[in-house]
Write a structure and sequence with these properties.
Blueprint: E1 3-7, E2 10-12, E3 18-25, E4 34-39, E5 46-51, E6 57-59, E7 67-72, E8 77-82, E9 91-97, E10 100-101, E11 105-109
């Protein structure tokens, strides 16, 4: 069965950076596109970024220029490098593959 485990969240000040990781198992990771989503308190889950099996990337407007999605197929892991963090980036961040979700990792941006 597909399992996704996110990590790397925490408390960061505005303007700071965090790198999230998502380790996948139970799936041939390298042949599928991977996604990051986030859900802020009281809001619906929203898409953040996608990376294809070939490494092409696409971002939500809120992430463009600040976030970078990448993948390491040898490690079955996808990353989300988040720079210039803003309080509005506070959310639980989830990775997704083939409709499967991890439990998420909480990112809090606050001074």
């Amino acid at each position: 069965q597909v399992q996704l485990v996110e990590s790397g969240g925490g408390l960061e000040q505005p303007g700071g950076s965090l790198r999230l990781s998502c380790a996948a198992s139970g799936v041939i990771f390298s042949i599928y596109r991977m996604h990051w989503y986030r859900q802020a308190p009281g809001n619906q889950r929203e898409w953040v970024a996608t990376i294809t099996k070939g490494g092409s990337t696409v971002y939500a407007d809120s992430a463009k220029g600040r976030f970078t999605i990448s993948r390491d197929n040898a490690k079955n892991t996808v990353y989300l490098q988040m720079n210039s963090l803003k309080p509005e980036d506070t959310a639980v961040y989830y990775c997704n593959i083939l409709g499967h979700w991890g439990k998420g990792t909480l990112v809090t941006v606050s001074s």
